Amino acid sequence: MKKIIAVITVLTLFFSVSSNTSADVFDDSKVKVILNGSELDFDPNAIIQNGNTMVPFRQLFEAYGAKVTWNQKTKTITAVKEDTTIRLTLDRFDAYVNNKKIKLTQTPYMAKNTSLVNLRFISEAMDAKVNFDKINLTVNITTSK
Fold it and tell me: What kind of architecture, by CATH, is found in domain 27-143?
């Protein structure tokens, strides 16, 4: 009987910890994102996940003026702007910039019916400079163009 209680306790703890780290958990603190002096308004809000600022992919790519496509079957996001092509697949650490394989620090994932991507990775792939103000939870992005 003690073994059964111990197993149930361990399983309960495991599932409660797992549910707290779900990708659907959104912080009450809104991360502000500023691109070339203009604040971007994301829906859902930009969040910090595992130390990475995550934002809705379509809104970010469109802010950069990129053409975006979504392949539902393969769960792949492709964005093209001028001579830069970025390809990401949900829940995969491998991304491609102009067919060059890059290892991500956080996978793109689905939350609140929206695909979220790593803001810094996308911005730097678009040749932008990214600065994170931890105190004010603000990301400042500057493009060269």
Answer: 2-Layer Sandwich (3.30)
56: CB partners within 8 A, 6+ apart: 42, 43, 44, 114, 115, 116, 117
Section 90-95 average pLDDT: 97
Alpha helices in 21-104 (DSSP H): 57-63
DSSP letter at 108?
A: -
Q: What is the pTM assigned to this prediction?
A: 0.77
Q: 104, 5, 7: which is closest to 57 by C-alpha?
A: 104
pLDDT for the residue 23 = 41
Q: Where are the domains of the chain?
A: 27-143
Structure tokens at 23: 């990708």
Long-range contact list for 39-48, CB < 8 A, 24+ apart? 43/114, 44/111, 44/112, 44/114, 46/119, 46/139, 47/116, 48/137
Residues 6+ apart with CB under 8 A from 18: none
Would you tell me how many other CB atoms lie within 10 Å of the CB of residue 112? 12
Q: What is the mean pLDDT of the chain?
A: 85
